[in-house]
Amino acid sequence: MPLQPHVQAYLEQTMALNLPPISEQTPDQLRQAQRQEMAEYGAPEPVAHVENRTIPGPGGEIPIRIYTPQGSGPFPLLVYFHGGGWVVCDLDTHDGICRSLANRAGCVVVAVDYRLAPEHKFPAAPEDCFAATKWVAANAAAINGDANRIAIGGDSAGGNLTAVITQMARDQGGPSLIFQLMNCPCTDFSMTAPSIERNGAGCGLDKEDMIWFMNHYLNNESERTDPLASPLLAKDLSGLPPALIIVAEYDLLCDEGEQYGQRLKEAGVPVTISCYEGMIHGFIGTPLDLEERGMNECAAALRAAFASKAAV
Questions:
Q1: For residue 150, how far is the Cα from the chain centroid?
Q2: How far is CA 267 from CA 81, 236, 246, 271, in A?
Q3: Pairing of strands 108-112, 49-55
Q4: What's the CATH code of the domain at 84?
Q5: Domain that includes residue 248, residue range
Q6: 29 near 84, Cβ under 8 Å?
Q7: 65 pairs with which residues across the strands?
Q8: One of 82, 94, 216, 281 is an active-site residue; which one?
Q9: What is the pLDDT of residues 183-236, one digit of tens each?
Q10: In angstroms, what CA-CA distances link 212 with 44, 86, 182, 199?
Q11: What percent of the chain has pLDDT over 70?
Q12: b vs e for 136-160, b when ≥16 Cβ sit within 10 Å of the residue's Cβ?
């Protein structure tokens, strides 16, 4: 189907601003633009309790933000990795998504401010995210969480990190994860999926932008095929937790998200692949998702996963 009318209007408004493309900016310029955009956001959705703290990581302290919903707990847990191409975004840019998921899924959300490229190139991001996931599992009771009900999730680059961390947890003896949530994930730096070309210009995130992010994130060409960067290229996807993979019809990453889901299914992993027609990359948690369908689907999937592991 064609682009949703409000998405088409958004793209036209963005083009009318005549802003430089991502691929022609420096990381600092793009981060500054994000901070200016953040200043226009409305009041955050209320959550019962929000706490900022730091935890030990392989490259120093990792900032995290803990969102606790109403109730007495112990709550199920979601470790959340933000998007931003491994180069931009932080706890503040994804504050709204984490608040909504905490409230709607009834879980403690731990957002992870992993190290960004190009200051900290691959594999700094997955190393930090894995360390944070292990910390949450080891300290679940201290944050009013249930160590037997831990899910991980993220959007875009965070979806990539979600896929990577589930593989690392399986291969390195834990922690045990019950669910993975991936929204518009990047899964393959070979960039050969048909949607790379089909949606590679004029849909909000261009092919040149993805190349820009990749070149800042990876150290060299050979890392493009490393499963810790391209989880689709892992030889074995069996034994991973059930997944919800959300893709957007007009996202250049659409096909590789679906391909990852199909490979999970072939490996015996329960997977739901949900394609949103007429949508573009990163629509969940933004005004583009006017009916909030995406956020509600994520929350419902998390609730179901948590309920399936609840103590009898």
A1: 16
A2: 25, 8, 19, 10
A3: unpaired
A4: 3.40.50.1820
A5: 5-308
A6: no
A7: 52, 111
A8: 281
A9: 999 999 999 999 999 999 999 999 999 999 999 999 999 999 999 999 999 999
A10: 31, 11, 22, 16
A11: 98
A12: bbeebeebbbbbbbbbbbbbbbbbb
Q: Which of 113, 155, 188, 251 is catalytic?
A: 251
Please tell me the total count of domains within the chain: 1
Q: Which of 156, 195, 209, 255 is catalytic?
A: 156
Q: Residue 287 has what pLDDT? A: 81
The model's pLDDT over 34-86, given as tens digits with 9 standing for 90+, comes to: 877 766 677 889 999 999 999 999 999 999 999 999 999 899 999 999 999 99
More confident site: 290 or 207: 207
Asked whether the CA dihedral 133, 138, 143, 144 is positive or negative, the reply is positive
What are the structure tokens assigned to 122, written together? 């691959």
Q: Is 251 part of the annotated catalytic residue set?
A: yes
Is 236 considered catalytic here? Answer: no
> What does the block give as tokens for 269?
């992993």
What pLDDT is recorded for position 126?
A: 98
Is residue 312's pLDDT more than 60?
no
Hey, what are 14's tokens? Answer: 């963005």
Quick one: residue 155, left, alpha or beta (phi over 0 = left, psi -120 to 50 = alpha)?
beta
Quick check: is 156 catalytic? yes
| Identity at 81, one-letter amino acid code | F
Q: What is the mean pLDDT of the chain?
A: 95
Tokens matching residue 247 = 């893709």
